Amino acid sequence: MSQPRTEDWTGEDVHRWLMTKVKVSQSCADRFIEEEVSGEYLVSFEKKDILDLGIKHGPAVKIACYLKSLTEGREHQSEYPAYVESWSKDQVSQWLTEHVKIYSKYAQQLLNEDVSGDCLICFMKQDFLDLEVKSGPAVKILAQMKKLNNEQEPLLQPSTQTSVGQAEGDTCVGLESNLPHTLENKQDIQEKTGSQGPSKRTSIKTEEKRTEPEPFGPKHKVAVVNPQPQSPQTTIMIKNILDDLLKDDLKNFHFHLSEYTKSKRKLIPRGKLEGKDPMDTAQILTGHYGGQEALLVTKDLLQEINQRELALQLEKSIGQLEQPCLSRDIMKKEANQGDKLKNLLTCGGDSLESYNSFVIVVNKSNPQQVQYLSFLSKLKLFCVLDFDPNSVAEGGLCHSYRELRVANLHLPTQFQGHTEAVIKELNLYLQTSWVFCNGRNDLDDCRELDYRTWLRRSCKDLEQLVSLICNPDVLLHGRYLVIFLLLSPVHSEKDPVLDTYMSFIKHIDESNIISICESQKTYLEWRELIKRKCDFDIEHFSINELSLSEINGTIMGLGPVTQSSTRLLPSSGSSAVVLKQKDEDLLTALDVLCLNQCEKIYEERSSEFHDFRKTVEEEFYRGAKVRWWNFYFCDKNTEKPFIKREKYEHVKKMIRSQRTYSSNTCVLLTLFHDPGCGGTTLAMHVMWDLRKEFRCAVLKDNTVPKTEVANQVRHLMKLESEKPSPVLLLVDDSKETDNPFDLLICIRQAVEDLSDIHLDDAPNCKVIILNCVRSHDPKEQYRKNNQTQNQYLTAKLTPQEQKEFEKKLKELKETHDKPENFYSFMFMKNNFDRKYTENLAHNTLENFDFSTKEGKLLSFLALLNTYVTKSEMALSLCEDFFQMKMVRWKDDSVLDRMKPYSNFLIIESVDEWGGYKGIRILHHAIASACLEELERSHDLKASDIVMEILHYDLFFSDGVVKHRLMRSVIRMLVERQLKKNGEERELFSPLIDKIHSQQGRQKVQEIFVKASSRFEKKLSIPQALARYLYINVKDFPEAIKWAEKAKNIKENPYTFDTIGEIHKSNLRFNINKEKQVGSHNPDNLLTNIEIAKNGWKAFQRAQELADMENEIEEEAPDDESEDYPRNSYNIKGYVKMLEIYFLVFEILSRLPFFEEHDPMKKHYLRSFLNGQFPISNVHKENSDCNNRCVEIIKEHELFLVKRKEIKEIFDLLNNNFTYIKQNSELDAINLRIVSNHFKKYVDLFCSTQEEMKKEKENKTTLSRKLEVEDRKRFLEKNQADTFSGILQYLDKPAEEMEQITDCYAFILQNDTNERNVKTKINYIMANIVLHHLKPKSKHVKKYKELCTLLQEVLQDVGLRYPFPDPYFLAQLLFWPSPTEENIDDITKYVKAIRKSSHKHLSKLLHKRSTVAYFYLGQEDGLRGLVSKPSLDKSFLPKMNRDVLAQLWRDGDIFKEEAIKSRLYRVKGTIEQGEVYANYRKQRIPVRTARTSAIRSGFSTEKVSFYIGFAINGPLAYNIKYEN
After folding, report:
1. Per the confidence metrics, is the pTM higher than 0.85?
2. Which of 89, 869, 1214, 1409 lies at a 20 to 30 A Cα distance from 1198?
């Protein structure tokens, strides 16, 4: 009976043919039944149709091949050896990688598509191409298959499956991805194959004996880079999760599963799921999708049906099965050790950027090995733990590395102490730390130790070092890789290298440690040691078959290629020099812009470059910071230039002008700009276009010490060239409160220290600082400052700029999809219109839900980005917040979770703490609009968001990335901004102001209390709450409680100052209240005096602490409340003590018996405060109230009678304002306050002319004595009773000075009761001042008379007088004449003035410069002194005071002819860093007025300079080297 035609076959016939002839699996044949494929349809099937059934590629090719033979009426025959047909898919993969030597990714692709031997023999070239195998490898595979006919059968690892058996095990419809089996999966394998035959036993035996040599050739390990869950385990895992669903939820799950479209696979028919229980459902899922995809599909569906907790539970289960450090994308079986090395170092990619840093542990090496270890210079090394004591010697690894890169040499003991201090001191993150863990033989006291001694002496130090490295505050877990580089064997357990390994696994997972061994023997010993000691097999994390040369070549070939191989800097004569990597390592604070920046990095015609360009442009126009690439792209396409803002040419012209015309070595230029208006972009654009004229760099970190920055700038200036090159330094993200002059002075000093600069090269020895400053009113700041050295940019486009933005939008539409979604660009294009961002926020946040984590995170970012600059949240922290870190996710997975808000977000790199990725809202204006929209449409207030942030423990536990978030939260609560006038600060942070205006005290206090519990060691939180309570609420007791809490955290001038301010405010509040009531209550008097005493004590303590500290400790950046300029507390305590006391005077003057408007009662008050008679003698009405008041005053008499102390404070402050340079606005405010209080002092304590007249009439016999007292009170009243007070009259009318001089003359003649030393000193000073004001005045004594009088004074006081005044006069009157013989040695008086000023004025002189009131002129005698006010008068008619002050500050004033023509230039020498003025035999020590004036190196040089006379000795100005 003839066989039926194929076309007549039923579905069952087709099924039978597939099972018996083609020999595919049951489930694969079942697919044809399910899809009703009879013979009539089968004959029309092609491979594509078979694939459409959901059948994998391997079986599909086999079926198509057999079907072709069937339709052609012939038997299927193979042209390859029969044994090939019996290969399992694993053996096919092994043959391809080990024998054909194709890339592992191609072998993996065939493995994933179930290509076993019986399928492989059916493959044609096109079948390989369809699997994305390139033509070359495809042709090679086919050629090698043909060669098998003439060669011996290759030996492959025994299979756990046969090709036929696989029909029941590995289904062709993806029942499970074919994953590599490990020893731990033995039970799974048994279940899967259902076999206990010899094949299985062989496999297990092979696994158990891996350390023994194979009987054939070199052994190639199967490197399970990332084992995946096996089929039964996956099915059970899904089943257990689905068991927790209710019946209706399971139906809902089935419905969504039948509609699931995210997979490339065909949909599962709904009928197939009808009535299935969790186990059946799990089997269907793994059968249809394969194990790994089934897990992800299940998780997606659980989230879709709002079963987030179950989804999270499943996510955790997945995480436990996968290596946390590698992504799902690279779960590969690697037999090729080169690929395995790449995977281990790059997490399966092709770039070393997968890890933030590497830690190397290396043992002894030899010079032959070192030549192959140059790959270390390519890795981002955090540290190297080196056990070779000779490594630093020539031929050693450390020596070799330091020839290419910078490494700091350390010992483990240096890593002990506070983490932040260690990081800062050892320059961690910035430069490689090379740690010698067992001695350095080049140091006598640091020799190599035997193991026994090392264990006792050094092991503990090493453990502490490892603990610090693994501390999440130092390196983020999972973001660094530890590499044990074994260049020599580790023979036994008694080896420090093994102890180091064991130390690491106490802190991190074994999967974060890999081993690279120089030989197979070293590897086998090392592996066995770790197995025995740690119960862990390192096979999957080891490289042992590659030579060091192969390892070196493999790693050097990995990305990233972030810069051209040769970076160039401009040099003299339009030449260029190479910037070496080692030199760049030294410039830790600078990001150097090179001549050839961005060039020759990519093949610019490649698709890779095209994609990179598109991505970078898109990120920038969306809202990322500008990169050099953005300017490079526009330069390459001149038809689409970068937008030039109107101020571009102004800034560029300003820089070039300063380079050409300024005589200073360093010039500060400032660009004031509105936040977010493109100020930094403009500055970088200018820098990009000037990179051929200047050596350009951006200051990466504003917290780096200014001296260090200056040294690096100097190094950049002279790099690779004998002649200097001008430097353009960009200082970005400065605030209006920052003081850039410190950096300016440091750079000047550093540059002027260059001793080998030829005169012709001086114009190029110049640094231009371009300082970008965020400002609330940039235009006003520009007007207030020197306009030749400043520019401004506002958030407003000119018409021309608007046209440029319109043009750019059209260009972007040509190259990018939907550029209208580039919100930052569009906001600027719309001329910074707030309506644009408001509409954007309204539309995007329409379905906002604060109860979801997505909603919470967006609100957190909106709040932080609105109120704090640079307030991104770490990406890893967001992952933790979403609980997403059970497996390694891609960066954009957070953005996926944040849809539909992700269009508002961008991910950027943050340089701090070794680098990490942060997420923020695109633009400040968008963040602000979101915050407003949340409040307007969703009733979500800023206070609610703050409380929610403070609620999460996650944000406030230890960790590197949380440090920055915590700092941002603190700044948001306490940082006060400058008012628009730019002079004073607002009372509170903008956020607290807003919450106070909306919700009042209760909510503000609730927030601060919660924040205080979060930041227990941060004093700025309770301090800010205390300020809020006393200023806004007037709740003084509660304010004191919180101020005391701040003080208990840390006692410093500022915490005591806050306490004093609360008492002062309380006192003022009580006085105003009593004025309104108009009554005098003794209890109120007692209360107010007690408050005043407490306030006085607090300010007194604040001043004591300020005086005691040599350098006021500033708060750490994360705790900066910005309540005060944190450079120095200075004299603030003294000023506030005066304020307290004059409030007390006000209280006393309102008492009935001290009423100020009654002259007699005022006289009583003055007499009482002078201590002339006690309170009991004061005339008063006899009443209970008065008597009680008298009792209270008597009780506190010691506190109230303080005239002498008050006068001493006034004198000290007067010294400060006279002798010390006043720099800040705070100094001017203090001067105004003190001046006002002195007027009150005069009114209270100094008698009027009428009072003095009456007193004389009543005491005629004492008239002469009263005349003397009258003169003294006149002097006190006019602040001329002190040396410093007299000096202040140099720029006042001569008539006033004549009166003062006359008073002193009268006192000297008639006061016989005192020694007169102080009076004589002041009289001499008064004569000198009067001579400069009115030389021909009849009151001026002759020069010789003054000298004689001064000689008398000096005879009386000697050289140890506690005040510098007489020695200051000696400078002025006895300074040597250049024309006459000098008898007196001035040197002794210079030494005396230094000692006495240091003793008397030490509280004022710290870190402050003194003022020179006189300069040495070209004449003799008093005419040889030139006063500063007289010099100023030469300029003031044609120059405003601000510009003149800048000339004095810069030292440029001495280049003016008006100065040079009047001052005498003294010749001198510099010896051992000290300046001396030389007059014949006299060598007079002189201080330098500017620290930058002397070169370093202690070179003995001849110099010349001008002399200025200050209260702490002579000063040298405008020092010039004679040679």
Report:
1. no
2. 1214
